[in-house]
Specification:
alpha/beta, L-arginine/glycine Amidinotransferase, Chain A, three-stranded mixed sheet, 15 strands, globular, binds arginine, EC 3.5.3.6, arginine deiminase
């Protein structure tokens, strides 16, 4: 495994919006100018890569596969912690063809020493990677979204694979079809989240674990800007162009916001976080053992 902050991207060579499996996806808008959209997507990708470099990441860019446009969202491909990657199982047939090329990508990362092991989930449940299973470094556990995409049982499977606590949160709307659309833990212990996305039980769970002073409530406008779908490292937050509300809120808490125009990807229901996958996350127990 690697101890440098390392983040995976997948090049948008084969990216497009040609089907619709979430309410944000707009194949019609893409089809009006596919070449122009693709050009814009390439430029947005380069801007994201640069912002992640500025945030201090070593960026690994892998190639996607023809006919699998959503591979550009590697957050959905696996959950990674302590050098171990657990590969995703996609709910929709449109994305299942990503499983084999992603398995090859993770095997390659293992061969290059960026991961120690690559594991698969038991049959019979869906799990869409770090998009639905987010490591909270301040609290030392995963938060797992379930409902629209990942299954409830996947949260328990993840707890077994990683030997870590997993707090399952039911997602109540198709608009927030992955947890990362509506929930983002920050390095200072704050959690940026959109309350209407969650079931009452999930909201109680969040509010029991995150004190009021650390809860940042996103507005519907923030959600529409895909601002909750952010990549955070230390005091830097990388996100697609945001709202005055969040710019002020994060700024007053000492965060520096790097904004990138990711509109070609928002047309597929994605923002900065889901276009990435952290490869270097380490749990508290492993960190302690390494220090001992
Ligand atoms: N079009 C993709 C899908 O519907 C977008 C995935 C965005 N990923 C995320 N983690 N939010 O699956």
């Amino acid at each position: 495994m690697t101890d440098r902050p390392t983040i995976l991207l997948v090049a948008p060579t084969f990216y497009d919006v040609s089907y619709s499996i979430n309410p944000w996806m707009d194949p019609g808008a893409w089809a009006r100018d596919p070449r122009g959209m693709h050009r814009r997507a390439m430029a947005s990708f380069d801007a994201l890569r640069e912002a992640l470099g500025t945030a201090g990441f070593q960026v690994e860019v892998m190639e996607g596969a023809p006919g699998q446009p959503d591979m550009v969202f590697p957050a959905n491909a696996a959950v990674v912690l302590d050098g171990k990657a657990v590969l995703a199982r996609f709910r929709y047939p449109q994305r299942r063809g990503e499983e084999a090329p992603f398995a090859a990508i993770f095997e390659d990362l293992r061969a290059r020493g960026l991961l120690d092991s690559v594991e698969t989930l038991p049959e019979g449940c869906y799990q869409e990677g770090a998009g639905d299973c987010i490591w909270d470094a301040s609290r030392g556990h995963f938060w797992a979204g379930f409902g629209p995409r990942s299954s409830r049982e996947a949260a328990d499977a993840m707890a077994r694979h990683f030997g870590q606590e997993v707090v399952a949160l039911e997602l109540a709307t198709e608009q927030s079809y992955h947890l990362d659309v509506c929930f983002c833990p920050l390095a200072g212990g704050e959690v940026l989240y959109y309350p209407p996305a969650f079931s009452p039980a999930a909201l109680r769970e969040i509010r029991a674990r995150v004190p009021a002073a650390q809860r940042i409530e996103a507005t519907e406008d923030d959600l529409r800007h895909f601002s909750v779908n952010a990549v955070n490292r230390g005091d830097t937050v990388v996100m697609t162009h945001t709202t005055p509300h969040l710019r002020t809120e994060l700024g007053s808490r000492g965060y520096r916001v790097l904004e990138v125009d990711l509109s070609p990807y928002m047309m597929s229901g994605g923002g900065a976080y889901c276009m990435t996958l952290r490869l270097d996350r380490v749990s508290t127990s492993v960190r302690r053992a390494a220090a001992a």
